[in-house]
Amino acid sequence: MRALPLLLLGLAVASAPALAQMKLQTKAAPSNGPETRYFTAIDGLMDGNADVVLKETRQGKTVTAAVLDVCYPADKSSDRKDRFVANLTVNGQTLSGTAQSVADKQPVTVKLNRKQTGDSFEFRGQITIGQTVTEVASTDNSDLSEKEFQDNQATEDGITPQPKDFTDVSPESIGVRVKLDAATDFLKSLKGEAVEIGTSSLAVTCDAMRSGEQTINLTVDPEHASALLAKAKSAPGVTAAGWTSGVVEMDRTIRFAAADWRDGDKINKDKLATAIAGVLAKTLAAKPASATWNANTGKLKLVLKRPSAIYPALGLTQNYEVTALVSPDKPGSSDRLMLWVSSPTVSTSDDSAGAKLNLSDDSGSDEEGSEAKDDNGAIDALVKELKGQRWDADKSVWR
């Protein structure tokens, strides 16, 4: 999920007060009834790592109620978050209250003094979490209306439950949105499954803590994606599941007739791997060395080798590693397949008999551990071999 937009509450450590740099648009004239206003930021508080929302209910310029919502790193050694929500008592210009953090159950005490000058607001005071005291000294803050705040809360996880095809989403990439209290059981249900879980999606973000839902990113063989989605949708606590963006880039993708590349309802992966390797062998002037299909992700890893010209007398080997992915061109049954082929990754090794040179990848070298600048027209050669089509990004059609 995307992080909440940072619009500036500007809570700061006292030794280094943060000055808000952004000014928001002029707010509409207040009505006669209660009005809700927001301050949003992580500026300065907890070394600038806190995500803060202060909600105020006002009658005219008088604050009648306030809620402080702070999400922050639970410890410095991980991405794990904690959060507290404190209902604050309003006493003139003083906002104070207590709470308990959600994850670690730490006691929280808040005492802030609020000062308004025109459209600018200043906050000073202390926030104590457990034994840690944070001094707050923040000036020149602007607030948001209810509509402005809600507009800024919109998040997009890119889940598409029923895409018309795989031109905007990737056939191997699955997103599952699940309620936080059900996420652990859902993840445990994937043990033993032929699927990979994106570890970055395991971190519970501030957005997830506030919404109560977490999006888990999965990579699966496209031939098993529909079955995985059906299982996910029936799992307790799952609120959405579908395809998302992934490895496939349309400028390196081919669509072609499926008939010659299937055995029954299954893709003949060995036949296809042989065909891809044969084309790459010609375009890269290299010999196929290995072809391996990943049982979890459905990706094909091809390795091709040729003599390296970097130092001919040493008899070194130049290695080309290419990743490919094949799937139907849309969910469900289709008479066409899609093939994505990565740019080659190039490295150099000593494959000679006997004692060998130990070579290290050098990111500054075009020869080792780098993506090839030119694959000698491999995609066009594959289009010709497979009698396929390429994607026209300008017209959004296959050509």
UniProtKB/TrEMBL annotation:
Keywords: Signal
Highest rank taxon of the organism: Bacteria
Residues covered by region (Disordered): 138-170, 345-378
Signal peptide: 1-20
Name of the molecule in the record: Uncharacterized protein
Originating species: Bradyrhizobium erythrophlei
Native organism taxonomy: Bacteria, Pseudomonadati, Pseudomonadota, Alphaproteobacteria, Hyphomicrobiales
